[in-house]
Amino acid sequence: MTTSHYIAGRWVEGQGSDCITVHDPALGVPFAEMMAASVAQVDQAVAAARDALPSWKALSAGTRAAFLRGFAEQLGQRREALIALQMRNNGKPRHEAEIDLDDAIATFAYYAQLAEQLPEKNREVPLAAPGFTARTRLEPVGVVGLIVPWNFPLVTSAWKLAPALAAGCTVVLKPSEVTPLIEQAYGQIADTLGLPAGVLNIVNGKAETGAALSSHNGLDKLSFTGSNSVGSQVMRSASAQCRPVTLELGGKSAIVVFDDCDVDQAVEWIVAGITWNAGQMCSATSRLLVQDGIADALLPRLQQAMEKLRVGNPLSEEVDMGPLTSQAQWLKVASYFATAREEGLQCLAGGKALDRDGWFVSPTLYADVPKQSRLWSEEIFGPVLCARRFASEEQAIAEANDSRFGLVATVCSADLARAERVADALEVGHVWINSVQAVFVETSWGGTKGSGIGRELGPWGLSGYLSVKHVTRCLG
Known about the structure:
The chain is of the alpha/beta class and 476 residues long. It has helices at 39-58, 61-77, 79-90, 94-117, 155-167, 184-193, 207-214, 228-241, 263-275, 292-308, 327-343, 374-377, 393-401, 416-425, 458-463, and strands at residues 5-7, 10-12, 19-24, 29-35, 132-140, 143-147, 170-174, 200-202, 221-225, 245-248, 254-257, 287-291, 346-349, 364-367, 384-390, 405-406, 408-412, 430-433, 448-449, 452-453, 466-474. It contains 15 helices and 21 strands.
């Protein structure tokens, strides 16, 4: 792939020093290569976005909404190709890849609706003081850099791209070097729709490209999803420019199961929370807190469910869980298996890398994991579940909140009043009650503590790309 970067409405060859190799994780073999963008090409992309900003933000909200609906329609027309690519490059089972695409489509359609409502939000503001009038204007932040991760390509970029375009911002998108292919669809769709040149720019690359974008003085805002270590670097770069950032970072989330729960239903929610996308989710509920009264019945049933999961190549088998997406992640998860053995943890299921082609690991369950264990406190980003028992509601809340992260949590209980009470007490950004992790575009996404800054999705996602201006006039 030579023309792998979309800058100022044109596909161009990468001029950077890094070669990006794209792998099929189910086989562990490469199937595409591209040259990374150079620092100069990042400059060109930002300049193109800057040039396009005045005319793009001057378009009517309805015109921008029409473009967003066009993105949604075009994604749907590319359905089978995008699902196949998501399966091949990420290792996702078909049902997961289908949900990813539906999520991206729904995101563009939703923000098209919100874009149409923007003129209504520019309104007069009543003042208590006589002799003055005031009005509010919502204006685009400006040129925005978007850096997205490899675990949900197409989806995370839609969560950022759609509200940014709806607000009237122009963007430079940097996909992950692990999964750079599927975001190419956005550039292809921009060509098909006749999106004005420079409104959307896509630069691919590794750390050098990301650093050049995050530190660029031509940006007005940066939105980043990824690891805490890289997120802190992004925040340092932004601080030099006093630039606003949205950061969606890591998690070490709890699922709390009370003893009045149906065991089979609880097992379904637990397994989904740790094995979806092979556990490669910042929202993975990787800490299981199970009440004493149900633990002896639940843990054996959970062990059986984990052992029955079908793990394999989603392109050739009907599977419940695919491989880890990269060799680096496979090695990281394998290192935690070694740590668990060193710590003497009780392994009820899995706990090993699988001896086959590709980057597969077994769904894993550890029981009675002490709080001082690294596996209890550190984000593993794999299908590794650690369980502890609790006696009371107060203890469950305290242990769930005892984390440097605060992204999500799940509460499982037949007592809905208690479930709601516990949900209110948890220090996280999103709580599910008696549910799998269903994420809807109308709700917010983001966390507290070390899980990030700001919110995506819902009206909050749009407001992150809008600046508030007040105009006050003296009548005298």
